[in-house]
Design a protein that fits this description.
This protein is an alpha/beta fold and about 150 residues long. It starts with a strand and ends with a helix. The protein binds D-ribose. D-ribose binds next to α3.
Length: about 150
């Protein structure tokens, strides 16, 4: 499984910790930056990682900014992306199980490294349940095709 990563300066430390954590578990990781603490604009990095997911080059993506909000909203502007900003493991599991989220976003200034890594594991180790949830996702994506 290939995972696209992206962050801004506010999410650098957690993104680097997630990258190490995923590589230790033998996931294939593509890191779209940023790579330093220099101030940058989160939409630029959300776009790069989300395009990799949207094109099928990556199977899913994980984004980090200060709150997880700006970078998550930005990712959701890319066609085909369902990115959930999550700060707890229950939401991380449920957004895969019910929303089939293909990206999650975390906030380094909100969530510590330990919980952040647990959230990533909870998301990656969950399965989409399909069934009644697929119909709702179809409706969600219909909104996208009608408006974008
Ligand atoms: C950057 O200072 C900060 O605004 C950004 O990381 C994020 O929290 C935005 O949603």
């Amino acid at each position: 499984m290939k995972i696209a990563l992206g962050c801004d300066h506010g999410g650098l430390n957690l993104k680097n910790a997630i990258k190490k954590h995923l590589e230790e578990q033998n996931y294939e990781v593509e890191d779209f930056g940023t790579y330093s603490t220099e101030s940058v604009d989160y939409p630029d990095y959300a776009k790069k990682a989300a395009m990799a997911v949207s094109s099928g080059d990556a199977d899913c993506g994980i984004l980090v900014c200060g709150t997880g909000i700006g970078i998550g909203i930005s990712a959701n502007k890319v066609k085909g992306i369902r990115c959930a900003t999550v700060g707890d493991t229950f939401s991380a599991r449920m957004t895969k199980a019910h929303n089939n989220a293909n990206m999650i976003a975390l906030g380094e200034r909100v969530t510590g490294i330990g919980l952040g890594l647990d959230i990533v594991d909870a998301y990656l180790n969950s399965e989409f349940e399909g069934g009644r949830h697929q119909k709702r996702i179809d409706k969600m994506m219909e909104i996208e095709s009608e408006n974008l």
